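Many introductory courses stop at the sequence. We go one step further.
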Amino acid sequence: MKKFLTLALALTTLAAAQDSVRVGMAYDAGGKFDRSFNQSAYTGGQRAAKTLGVQLKDFEPSDPSQIIQGIRSFAGEGFDLTIGIGFANNASITQVAKENPDLYFGLVDDVSPQKNVASLVFAEQEGSYLVGYLAGLNSSTGVVGFVGGMDIPLIHKFEAGFAAGAKAANPRVRVIAQYVGTTPEAWNNPGKAKEIAASMRAKGSDIIFAAAGASGNGVIDYVKQTQCLKAGNLPSGVRFASNNFNNVTKSASYRQACAGNTRPMFFIGVDSNQNYLGDFDKNPATMNHGLTSMLKRVDNAVYSLIKATKDGGFRGGERRFGLKEGGVGYAVDQYNKALISSAQVARVEAAKARIISGAIKVPTK
Protein backbone atom coordinates (compact mmCIF):
# COMPACT_ATOMS: atom_id res chain seq x y z
CA MET A 1 0.00 0.00 0.00
CA LYS A 2 2.83 2.38 0.88
CA LYS A 3 4.59 1.62 -2.42
CA PHE A 4 1.33 2.25 -4.29
CA LEU A 5 0.86 5.65 -2.65
CA THR A 6 4.47 6.62 -3.37
CA LEU A 7 4.06 5.65 -7.04
CA ALA A 8 0.77 7.54 -7.30
CA LEU A 9 2.36 10.67 -5.81
CA ALA A 10 5.31 10.45 -8.22
CA LEU A 11 2.97 10.09 -11.20
CA THR A 12 0.88 13.04 -10.02
CA THR A 13 4.00 15.20 -9.62
CA LEU A 14 5.22 14.22 -13.09
CA ALA A 15 1.84 15.01 -14.63
CA ALA A 16 1.80 18.44 -12.92
CA ALA A 17 5.28 19.20 -14.24
CA GLN A 18 4.23 18.17 -17.74
CA ASP A 19 1.08 20.33 -17.53
CA SER A 20 2.88 23.48 -16.34
CA VAL A 21 3.53 26.23 -18.84
CA ARG A 22 7.08 26.30 -20.18
CA VAL A 23 8.59 29.67 -21.09
CA GLY A 24 11.87 30.30 -22.90
CA MET A 25 13.58 33.70 -22.76
CA ALA A 26 16.27 34.73 -25.24
CA TYR A 27 18.19 37.78 -24.05
CA ASP A 28 19.79 40.62 -25.97
CA ALA A 29 23.45 41.68 -25.96
CA GLY A 30 24.70 42.51 -22.47
CA GLY A 31 23.23 39.43 -20.80
CA LYS A 32 20.49 38.92 -18.25
CA PHE A 33 22.49 40.56 -15.46
CA ASP A 34 23.22 43.86 -17.24
CA ARG A 35 21.49 45.72 -14.32
CA SER A 36 19.32 47.36 -16.97
CA PHE A 37 17.01 46.26 -19.81
CA ASN A 38 17.71 42.51 -19.86
CA GLN A 39 17.73 42.23 -16.10
CA SER A 40 14.33 43.87 -15.88
CA ALA A 41 12.98 41.16 -18.20
CA TYR A 42 14.73 38.52 -16.11
CA THR A 43 13.07 39.89 -12.97
CA GLY A 44 9.64 39.64 -14.59
CA GLY A 45 10.32 36.08 -15.64
CA GLN A 46 11.51 35.09 -12.16
CA ARG A 47 8.38 36.63 -10.63
CA ALA A 48 6.25 34.54 -12.99
CA ALA A 49 8.17 31.37 -12.12
CA LYS A 50 7.70 32.04 -8.40
CA THR A 51 4.07 33.17 -8.34
CA LEU A 52 2.56 31.38 -11.35
CA GLY A 53 4.48 28.12 -11.20
CA VAL A 54 5.69 28.26 -14.80
CA GLN A 55 8.92 26.61 -15.89
CA LEU A 56 11.47 29.15 -17.13
CA LYS A 57 14.57 28.55 -19.23
CA ASP A 58 17.13 31.19 -20.29
CA PHE A 59 19.24 31.60 -23.40
CA GLU A 60 22.09 34.13 -23.51
CA PRO A 61 23.77 34.32 -26.95
CA SER A 62 27.51 34.92 -26.97
CA ASP A 63 27.14 36.13 -30.55
CA PRO A 64 24.12 37.66 -32.38
CA SER A 65 24.25 34.87 -34.96
CA GLN A 66 23.34 32.37 -32.22
CA ILE A 67 20.02 34.00 -31.37
CA ILE A 68 17.93 32.01 -33.83
CA GLN A 69 19.50 28.74 -32.63
CA GLY A 70 18.33 29.36 -29.07
CA ILE A 71 14.83 30.36 -30.16
CA ARG A 72 14.55 27.32 -32.45
CA SER A 73 15.66 25.13 -29.57
CA PHE A 74 12.77 26.37 -27.40
CA ALA A 75 10.30 25.85 -30.24
CA GLY A 76 11.71 22.40 -31.01
CA GLU A 77 11.06 21.37 -27.41
CA GLY A 78 7.49 22.62 -27.71
CA PHE A 79 7.75 25.51 -25.26
CA ASP A 80 4.37 27.19 -24.79
CA LEU A 81 5.86 30.70 -24.99
CA THR A 82 9.22 31.95 -26.24
CA ILE A 83 10.12 35.59 -25.59
CA GLY A 84 12.84 37.50 -27.45
CA ILE A 85 14.22 40.36 -25.35
CA GLY A 86 15.24 43.28 -27.57
CA PHE A 87 14.65 44.46 -31.12
CA ALA A 88 17.64 42.44 -32.35
CA ASN A 89 15.56 39.30 -31.75
CA ASN A 90 12.80 40.39 -34.14
CA ALA A 91 14.00 38.57 -37.27
CA SER A 92 14.63 35.34 -35.36
CA ILE A 93 11.35 35.44 -33.42
CA THR A 94 9.40 36.23 -36.59
CA GLN A 95 11.04 33.42 -38.55
CA VAL A 96 10.60 30.75 -35.87
CA ALA A 97 7.03 31.91 -35.16
CA LYS A 98 6.25 31.50 -38.85
CA GLU A 99 7.68 27.98 -38.75
CA ASN A 100 5.62 27.12 -35.65
CA PRO A 101 2.15 28.69 -36.00
CA ASP A 102 0.79 26.48 -33.18
CA LEU A 103 3.17 28.00 -30.59
CA TYR A 104 3.16 31.40 -28.90
CA PHE A 105 5.95 33.97 -28.98
CA GLY A 106 6.70 37.34 -27.44
CA LEU A 107 8.96 40.18 -28.58
CA VAL A 108 10.09 43.08 -26.43
CA ASP A 109 10.95 46.45 -28.02
CA ASP A 110 9.85 45.81 -31.60
CA VAL A 111 6.84 44.72 -33.64
CA SER A 112 6.59 41.42 -35.49
CA PRO A 113 4.08 40.88 -38.32
CA GLN A 114 3.37 37.30 -37.20
CA LYS A 115 -0.05 36.77 -35.66
CA ASN A 116 1.28 34.37 -33.00
CA VAL A 117 3.74 36.98 -31.68
CA ALA A 118 2.81 39.43 -28.92
CA SER A 119 4.88 42.58 -29.51
CA LEU A 120 5.55 44.56 -26.31
CA VAL A 121 6.65 48.13 -27.00
CA PHE A 122 7.04 51.19 -24.78
CA ALA A 123 6.63 54.96 -24.92
CA GLU A 124 10.22 55.52 -23.78
CA GLN A 125 10.05 59.19 -24.70
CA GLU A 126 7.42 59.81 -22.00
CA GLY A 127 9.48 58.45 -19.11
CA SER A 128 12.57 60.15 -20.52
CA TYR A 129 10.73 63.48 -20.54
CA LEU A 130 10.18 63.19 -16.78
CA VAL A 131 13.81 62.43 -15.92
CA GLY A 132 14.89 65.15 -18.35
CA TYR A 133 12.62 67.55 -16.47
CA LEU A 134 14.39 66.66 -13.23
CA ALA A 135 17.76 67.12 -14.91
CA GLY A 136 16.73 70.57 -16.13
CA LEU A 137 15.58 71.57 -12.66
CA ASN A 138 18.74 70.35 -10.95
CA SER A 139 21.68 71.00 -13.27
CA SER A 140 24.05 73.47 -11.64
CA THR A 141 25.72 74.32 -14.95
CA GLY A 142 22.80 74.27 -17.37
CA VAL A 143 24.56 71.54 -19.36
CA VAL A 144 23.33 67.93 -19.31
CA GLY A 145 24.38 64.87 -21.27
CA PHE A 146 22.72 61.93 -23.01
CA VAL A 147 24.69 58.77 -23.79
CA GLY A 148 22.90 56.41 -26.16
CA GLY A 149 23.93 52.83 -26.82
CA MET A 150 23.32 51.81 -30.43
CA ASP A 151 22.42 54.69 -32.73
CA ILE A 152 18.92 53.57 -33.71
CA PRO A 153 15.41 55.11 -33.74
CA LEU A 154 14.46 53.32 -30.51
CA ILE A 155 17.17 55.15 -28.54
CA HIS A 156 16.41 58.39 -30.36
CA LYS A 157 13.09 58.28 -28.49
CA PHE A 158 14.97 58.35 -25.18
CA GLU A 159 17.10 61.27 -26.36
CA ALA A 160 14.16 63.26 -27.75
CA GLY A 161 12.08 62.87 -24.60
CA PHE A 162 15.01 63.68 -22.32
CA ALA A 163 15.91 66.83 -24.24
CA ALA A 164 12.27 68.00 -24.38
CA GLY A 165 11.81 67.50 -20.63
CA ALA A 166 15.07 69.26 -19.74
CA LYS A 167 14.17 72.26 -21.90
CA ALA A 168 10.64 72.41 -20.48
CA ALA A 169 12.14 72.76 -17.00
CA ASN A 170 14.92 75.13 -18.09
CA PRO A 171 14.63 76.69 -21.57
CA ARG A 172 18.30 77.73 -21.41
CA VAL A 173 19.62 74.23 -20.76
CA ARG A 174 22.09 72.72 -23.24
CA VAL A 175 21.76 69.01 -24.04
CA ILE A 176 24.81 67.14 -25.37
CA ALA A 177 24.10 63.77 -26.98
CA GLN A 178 26.46 61.06 -28.20
CA TYR A 179 26.12 57.37 -29.03
CA VAL A 180 28.44 54.49 -28.17
CA GLY A 181 28.24 52.91 -31.63
CA THR A 182 26.20 51.68 -34.58
CA THR A 183 26.37 47.90 -34.02
CA PRO A 184 24.96 45.64 -31.26
CA GLU A 185 28.36 45.75 -29.53
CA ALA A 186 27.39 49.30 -28.48
CA TRP A 187 25.24 47.79 -25.71
CA ASN A 188 28.22 46.19 -24.01
CA ASN A 189 31.08 48.69 -24.22
CA PRO A 190 31.33 50.48 -20.86
CA GLY A 191 34.86 51.69 -21.68
CA LYS A 192 33.61 53.74 -24.62
CA ALA A 193 30.69 55.10 -22.60
CA LYS A 194 33.12 56.15 -19.88
CA GLU A 195 35.17 58.09 -22.45
CA ILE A 196 32.01 59.84 -23.65
CA ALA A 197 31.08 60.77 -20.07
CA ALA A 198 34.53 62.30 -19.60
CA SER A 199 34.11 64.41 -22.73
CA MET A 200 30.71 65.60 -21.53
CA ARG A 201 32.07 66.60 -18.13
CA ALA A 202 34.81 68.56 -19.91
CA LYS A 203 32.01 70.51 -21.64
CA GLY A 204 30.36 71.29 -18.31
CA SER A 205 27.78 68.52 -18.05
CA ASP A 206 26.96 67.63 -14.44
CA ILE A 207 24.05 65.23 -15.08
CA ILE A 208 24.29 62.40 -17.63
CA PHE A 209 21.45 60.11 -18.71
CA ALA A 210 22.65 56.84 -20.23
CA ALA A 211 20.29 54.67 -22.29
CA ALA A 212 22.96 52.22 -23.32
CA GLY A 213 22.38 48.82 -21.73
CA ALA A 214 25.46 47.43 -20.02
CA SER A 215 27.54 50.25 -21.54
CA GLY A 216 25.79 52.59 -19.11
CA ASN A 217 27.87 51.07 -16.34
CA GLY A 218 30.80 53.04 -17.77
CA VAL A 219 28.97 56.30 -17.13
CA ILE A 220 28.20 55.25 -13.56
CA ASP A 221 31.83 54.28 -13.03
CA TYR A 222 33.00 57.65 -14.34
CA VAL A 223 30.69 59.55 -12.00
CA LYS A 224 31.97 57.42 -9.11
CA GLN A 225 35.55 58.21 -10.11
CA THR A 226 35.12 61.98 -10.44
CA GLN A 227 32.14 62.77 -8.14
CA CYS A 228 32.03 66.48 -8.97
CA LEU A 229 32.89 69.40 -11.23
CA LYS A 230 35.28 72.11 -10.08
CA ALA A 231 34.76 75.77 -10.92
CA GLY A 232 38.33 76.14 -12.10
CA ASN A 233 37.87 73.39 -14.68
CA LEU A 234 34.65 74.63 -16.25
CA PRO A 235 34.89 75.45 -19.98
CA SER A 236 34.50 78.95 -21.30
CA GLY A 237 30.93 80.19 -21.13
CA VAL A 238 29.85 77.73 -18.43
CA ARG A 239 29.46 78.70 -14.77
CA PHE A 240 27.68 77.46 -11.69
CA ALA A 241 24.20 78.97 -11.68
CA SER A 242 22.71 77.02 -8.74
CA ASN A 243 23.65 74.93 -5.73
CA ASN A 244 20.63 72.73 -5.05
CA PHE A 245 22.54 70.12 -3.07
CA ASN A 246 24.51 72.38 -0.76
CA ASN A 247 22.70 71.15 2.36
CA VAL A 248 22.73 67.44 1.52
CA THR A 249 25.07 65.46 3.77
CA LYS A 250 28.21 64.44 1.85
CA SER A 251 30.48 61.43 2.32
CA ALA A 252 34.01 61.86 3.67
CA SER A 253 35.35 60.81 0.28
CA TYR A 254 33.31 63.50 -1.47
CA ARG A 255 34.33 66.24 0.96
CA GLN A 256 37.99 65.37 0.43
CA ALA A 257 37.88 65.09 -3.35
CA CYS A 258 35.51 67.98 -3.92
CA ALA A 259 36.60 70.70 -1.52
CA GLY A 260 36.22 74.31 -2.60
CA ASN A 261 33.90 75.69 -5.26
CA THR A 262 32.46 72.48 -6.69
CA ARG A 263 29.14 70.89 -7.64
CA PRO A 264 28.23 67.18 -7.58
CA MET A 265 27.92 65.00 -10.66
CA PHE A 266 24.98 62.66 -11.19
CA PHE A 267 23.94 59.90 -13.53
CA ILE A 268 20.36 59.01 -14.40
CA GLY A 269 19.67 55.29 -14.54
CA VAL A 270 17.58 53.52 -17.15
CA ASP A 271 15.10 50.64 -17.49
CA SER A 272 15.54 49.23 -13.96
CA ASN A 273 15.74 51.39 -10.84
CA GLN A 274 19.50 52.01 -10.74
CA ASN A 275 19.42 54.65 -7.99
CA TYR A 276 21.21 52.33 -5.57
CA LEU A 277 24.24 52.23 -7.87
CA GLY A 278 24.90 55.87 -6.95
CA ASP A 279 25.36 55.02 -3.28
CA PHE A 280 29.14 54.94 -3.63
CA ASP A 281 29.89 54.87 0.12
CA LYS A 282 27.16 52.33 0.96
CA ASN A 283 25.40 54.85 3.16
CA PRO A 284 21.96 56.01 1.94
CA ALA A 285 22.08 58.87 4.46
CA THR A 286 24.81 60.65 2.46
CA MET A 287 24.41 62.18 -0.98
CA ASN A 288 23.58 59.67 -3.69
CA HIS A 289 24.98 60.20 -7.19
CA GLY A 290 22.04 58.61 -8.97
CA LEU A 291 19.66 61.55 -9.45
CA THR A 292 16.82 59.24 -10.54
CA SER A 293 16.13 56.43 -13.00
CA MET A 294 13.88 56.24 -16.05
CA LEU A 295 11.83 53.15 -15.35
CA LYS A 296 10.91 51.00 -18.31
CA ARG A 297 8.77 48.28 -16.81
CA VAL A 298 9.89 45.42 -18.99
CA ASP A 299 9.41 43.21 -15.92
CA ASN A 300 5.70 44.03 -15.73
CA ALA A 301 5.21 43.56 -19.48
CA VAL A 302 6.96 40.18 -19.49
CA TYR A 303 5.08 39.02 -16.40
CA SER A 304 1.69 40.05 -17.85
CA LEU A 305 2.41 38.19 -21.09
CA ILE A 306 3.41 35.00 -19.26
CA LYS A 307 0.32 35.24 -17.03
CA ALA A 308 -1.96 35.76 -20.02
CA THR A 309 -0.46 32.71 -21.70
CA LYS A 310 -0.89 30.58 -18.58
CA ASP A 311 -4.48 31.77 -18.18
CA GLY A 312 -5.32 30.96 -21.79
CA GLY A 313 -5.57 34.60 -22.82
CA PHE A 314 -2.56 34.99 -25.12
CA ARG A 315 -3.16 37.66 -27.72
CA GLY A 316 -0.85 38.35 -30.64
CA GLY A 317 -0.17 41.82 -32.01
CA GLU A 318 1.17 45.06 -30.59
CA ARG A 319 0.78 46.12 -26.95
CA ARG A 320 2.08 49.56 -26.02
CA PHE A 321 3.10 50.59 -22.50
CA GLY A 322 3.35 54.31 -21.70
CA LEU A 323 2.75 56.52 -18.66
CA LYS A 324 -0.98 55.85 -18.80
CA GLU A 325 -0.41 52.09 -18.65
CA GLY A 326 2.29 52.29 -15.99
CA GLY A 327 4.86 51.07 -18.50
CA VAL A 328 7.36 53.89 -17.93
CA GLY A 329 8.11 56.33 -15.11
CA TYR A 330 10.79 57.70 -12.81
CA ALA A 331 12.19 56.49 -9.49
CA VAL A 332 12.18 58.19 -6.09
CA ASP A 333 13.32 56.02 -3.18
CA GLN A 334 15.51 56.02 -0.07
CA TYR A 335 18.59 56.70 -2.16
CA ASN A 336 17.51 59.91 -3.89
CA LYS A 337 14.70 61.31 -1.75
CA ALA A 338 17.14 63.87 -0.30
CA LEU A 339 17.95 65.09 -3.82
CA ILE A 340 14.46 65.66 -5.17
CA SER A 341 12.22 67.96 -3.13
CA SER A 342 8.48 67.47 -2.73
CA ALA A 343 8.01 70.66 -4.75
CA GLN A 344 9.97 69.13 -7.63
CA VAL A 345 8.00 65.91 -7.41
CA ALA A 346 4.80 67.94 -7.63
CA ARG A 347 6.05 69.67 -10.80
CA VAL A 348 7.05 66.36 -12.38
CA GLU A 349 3.71 64.80 -11.47
CA ALA A 350 1.93 67.76 -13.07
CA ALA A 351 3.94 67.22 -16.26
CA LYS A 352 3.13 63.51 -16.11
CA ALA A 353 -0.60 64.27 -15.87
CA ARG A 354 -0.39 66.60 -18.85
CA ILE A 355 1.34 63.94 -20.93
CA ILE A 356 -1.31 61.38 -20.02
CA SER A 357 -4.10 63.84 -20.88
CA GLY A 358 -2.49 64.67 -24.21
CA ALA A 359 -1.80 68.30 -23.32
CA ILE A 360 1.92 67.62 -23.76
CA LYS A 361 2.99 65.78 -26.92
CA VAL A 362 6.42 64.33 -26.29
CA PRO A 363 8.60 64.09 -29.43
CA THR A 364 10.09 60.77 -30.50
CA LYS A 365 12.98 62.10 -32.58
